[in-house]
Amino acid sequence: MDFISHGLWPVAVFPNARWKWKAALFGILPDVGMFGPLMYLFAQDGIRQIKWIIPFIDKTGLTYLTPSIPDVWMASYFAFHSLVVWLFVVGLFVLIKKRMYWPLIGWGMHILFDMFLHAGRYATQIFFPLSDWSVSSSLGWQDKRVLLLNWIVLLILFGLFALRRLQKKSA
C-alpha cells in the first residue's frame, strides 16, 4: 500500500479516537523505518546510489523506477513489517505502562495491509525473524484496481466524516 494510505487508514478506522493521529504516524513507521535511512543515503551520495534504481514492471504492465534495496537493508524492512516484532513492542509497552498503547494499532494495520499486497522480494514476512514465511499475493498494492479501490473507500469514509461534522455543527 502507498505511504499516505498507511497513515490515513488508522484515522479512517478510528475517527473518534483521541490517538488517531498518533496511530497515523505509527501507520507510516514501517516505511519510514525502512526508507528513511535509504533516503538519507540518497541525499548524501545520490549520484553513486543511482545504481540502486532499477526498472520495475508490475502485473498490469505499468513500468516505473523503484529502489533496488541492498540485501543488508532488507532485514530492517522485514523487522518493521513483522507481526512478531510488532507484538514484542506492544508487549513491552503493556509491560512497562501496564496498559495498551492504542496508537500502535496503526503499525499493526500497516503490516496486515502489506501482508496481502506485497510479493516477491518485498513479500511481508510476518513471522520474521522466526520464519521467512509470507503470503504469496498475486495482487500488488500498485495494481490500478487496488489503488483505485483503496482511494475511493478512503475518500468515501473521509467524506462521510466531514458530512457528519457539518451536520453536528448545524444542529
State the distance separating the first and last CA atoms: 38 Å
How do the SSEs run, as a string of H and E?
HHEEHHHH
Helix content: 55-70%
Strand content bin? 5-15%
Largest beta sheet: strand ordering = 1-2
How many distinct beta strands? 2
User: Radius of gyration in whole Å, from Cα?
Assistant: 18 Å
Report the average pLDDT across residues.
84
Outline:
globular
Instruction: State the domain count.
Output: 1
User: What structural category characterises the helix and strand content?
Assistant: mainly alpha
Query: Major beta sheet, specifics?
Result: 2 strands, antiparallel
Q: Helical region count?
A: 6
Low-confidence stretches: 50-58
Give structural notes.
- This protein has 171 residues and is mainly alpha-helical.
- It has one domain.
- 62% of the residues lie in helices and 6% in strands.
- It has six helices and two strands.
- It has a two-stranded antiparallel sheet with strand order 1-2.
- A hairpin with a 5-residue loop joins β1 and β2.
- It is globular.
- The termini are far apart.
- About 5% of the residues have low confidence.
Labels describing this entry:
two-stranded antiparallel sheet, globular, single chain, 171 residues, mainly alpha, 6 helices
Architecture blueprint of SSEs:
Blueprint lengths: L2 H11 L6 H30 L3 E5 L5 E5 L3 H10 L2 H15 L7 H13 L26 H27 L1
Antiparallel strand pairs: 1-2
Helix pairs in contact: 1-2, 1-5, 1-6, 2-3, 2-5
